[in-house]
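tool_log.txt
---
The assistant was asked to compare two proteins side by side. It first ran the structure predictor on the initial sequence, then on the second. Raw inputs and outputs are pasted verbatim so the downstream comparison step can read them without reformatting.
(1)
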Amino acid sequence: TYTVCISQHSASLIPIHRINRMNWNYLVCFSILLGFNLSMLDAFIDGRHSTILTERRSSYLGRHKQHMFTGIVEEMGEVVSLEVDKEMTLWDGTAGKGTELTVKATKALEDAYLGCSISVNGVCLTATSLTATTFTVGLAPETMARTYFADLKDGEPLNLERASEVGGRNSGHFVQGHVDGTGTIIYKQPVGDSLVIRVKTSPDILAGIVPKGFIAVDGTSLTVVDVNRKESWFSFMLVEYTQKKIIIPDKPIGGKVNLEVDVLGKYSVNAIATTILPRIEALEARIVELEKMIANK
């Protein structure tokens, strides 16, 4: 058996009385597919309920603005300062220490407000302070552990993107801004006016990367070219236009990049590991048991 938890607003969007008839794959993907690609659900539910879902989803999104990132970098900002162990007042009024990053920007500040989300090198961060030319964000311990932000230097360029409304135009892919870890550039080679780059990363991250799939590298939506699982690297190609708009081409061999695996890949890997493989292993064990019973007769 398996258990899923559906929030109150999700329950208002789907026909709950039919949940025992839905394909389990639909349940695995429901929470992410609902936000950005309703058409993919049609394979799992009939047309009548698909219409109901479309109407209720449109009504919900009309009342509640939902945001994501697309991996289309809007501008290159600049590190103003990175303050580690800064004295600050915590939520309960007590004194504590934290890390703050201040970034110089232009486009990212348009329509910005305190509490808004801005992608900085692929990391979804909350604006805690705004000026005419800068914004400041707090960096949690988890962010520092998953990224290379501890190595940022004053004046270093950064990929920036404002959050986009779910359901709007998306020229990249669904990027959460939840970085899985880092990779290291191990190869750079021009091919015509394009640039091929290989990035070495951990097997855990590589498990969710497939050729011609999506990958967010420093917040840039890119198409995976090749994957070498034996040597633990993947590659992508930057066209001439993109090279001028992002920070990746200027990084040297050995340079770090933030990586976010396509969310569908993460859910697929998790579904296989937690649901399919255990069932296959149980089935194989049962077959072995039956073979022994037959052999002993």
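(2)
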Amino acid sequence: MSDTNPTNQQPSQLFIVSDSTGATAENMTRAALAQFEDYLVHITTYSHITDRRKLQALVRLAHKEDALIVFTLVNPDAREALYEAGHKHNVDCVDLIGGLIGGLAKHLGGLQPRGIPGAKTSLSDEYFRRIDAVEFTVKHDDGAEARYLDQSDIVLVGVSRTSKTPLSTYLAQKGWKVANIPLVLGIDLPNQLFTIDQDKIFALTIEPEPLHAIRLARIRNLGLQPNSNYGSLEHIHMELEYANELFRANPTWPVIDVTRRAVEESADLVLKIFMERKRARGRETTIRG
């Protein structure tokens, strides 16, 4: 496998292979990628792959494209077939679930796993709630459809590259309808942001230097002009000061610093504050009653 070269405009190839939807593997992989900076990776997901010949074909393709394979295959025969093909064609394969299944089987007194891809007891109301949340969040990304902000559970506000979209997506997968609003110098914010329930709004911030590095990496990856305001440290300071002034003017908005914080950590903090406020409001309602 060749190393990822930050200066190379060709993205590293990464194959997600699953005998179910592949959502688990993709989410875990993106969470792991969040620990790196200045990379360009193209992810391709191959779902519902159970046939040995298809697995072997994917390994051959991975060899041709110099791709890393990350997989979740619950059937031990399928895992073995993938490992064999990977060894034969010198393709690295990372198993995200096999070790966990084996550890659980041992811990549970030698119980044998069912080996059923995506095994669930039933399609619950919770499942469909999460689907609705993801659809809502996709439609309300980056300030889109602001007139429906009142229908959101959570609203994220911040300058560009403060993890608004990844954080929105992560929260949506947990069943929360999330909208996010970008803060851009010279562009007015939607009126709805100030008329909805202010307890659902969360402000995102980041330190200037890490933000500068993130934006410069994005400029290189997209082939943009390096001298644009987007990548200017001076302009970044101006953007963050504008954001901080807005946050100070709206003290009910909790400010989450995403600097060196994984998406999962930011999400945990948002939900902790959100649920504390929800419980407090419930107590107030009970007292008033």
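---
observation on (2): The mean pLDDT is 87. The beta strands are 12-18, 41-46, 68-72, 93-95, 154-158, 178-182, 201-205, 255-257.
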